[in-house]
Amino acid sequence: MAIWAARVEFTLDHDLTGEEAIAITEALAEVDPAASVGVEREQGRASTQFFVTARTLRSACDQAISHTVAALGAAEVLAEPRGVEVLDEATFTERLTRPTIPELVGYAEIAEIAGVSRQRAAQLAEEHEDFPPVVVCTKPGPQRVKAAVEQWFTAKGERRRGRPPKPAAS
């Protein structure tokens, strides 16, 4: 037997109320006292999260769906399961330790990536419409996703240090 982390997403014809979430959680408490219900970003979508004990992944999936359907019924919530994610304990634990926010960079780090000055890095960001967008503004300045910035410079080719050559006079 193994422990599996289960998440079952379901849809409703309305947004889940607090009372409904509590009723579903209480119904799942028999399966896992730490069970929870979450509301998804999209309207009318929610999910249950809990642990099950099963011999196989297939059995864990079946149990997760069955327990969720039973909890929805006990809570008198009309909903339809739309998806299930079941992870073994090691994978679940590894995901918990992974950062959820990607590495971010400001102009100083962009300058290092590109081999240019900080001022030039800021100019590049302003001059190019396809430069990776700002994802968060902080007191030191705007922050962008590092991987997107590196990819942008790779796609543009090598940057050269110093001033660009002046155009030939016509």
How do the strands and helices of this protein lay out in sequence?
Elements: E1 2-11, H1 18-28, E2 36-39, E3 45-54, H2 57-74, E4 80-88, H3 89-97, E5 104-105, H4 107-114, H5 118-127, E6 136-138, E7 141-145, H6 146-156
Antiparallel strand pairs: 1-3, 1-4, 2-3, 5-7, 6-7
Key attributes of the depicted protein:
170 residues; 39% helix; 6 helices; Alpha-Beta Plaits
- The average pLDDT score comes to 91
Largest sheet geometry: 4 strands, antiparallel
Tell me the domain tally. Answer: 2
CATH topology of the largest domain: Alpha-Beta Plaits
Distance between the termini: 80 Å
Stretches where pLDDT is under 50 for at least 5 consecutive residues are none
Return the CATH class of the largest domain: Alpha Beta
- Rg over alpha carbons: 25 Å
Strand order of the largest sheet: 2-3-1-4
In short:
This protein is an alpha+beta fold and 170 residues long. Helices cover 39% and strands 25% of the residues.
Fold and architecture overview:
There is one protein chain. The chain folds into two domains: 2-97, Alpha-Beta Plaits (2-Layer Sandwich), CATH 3.30.70; 104-156. The protein contains six helices and seven strands, in the order E-H-E-E-H-E-H-E-H-H-E-E-H. It has helices at 18-28, 57-74, 89-97, 107-114, 118-127, 146-156, and strands at residues 2-11, 36-39, 45-54, 80-88, 104-105, 136-138, 141-145. The strands form two sheets. Strands 2-3-1-4 form a four-stranded antiparallel sheet. A hairpin with a 5-residue loop joins strand 2 and strand 3. Helix 1 (18-28) crosses helix 2. It is elongated, with a radius of gyration of 25 Å. The mean pLDDT is 91.
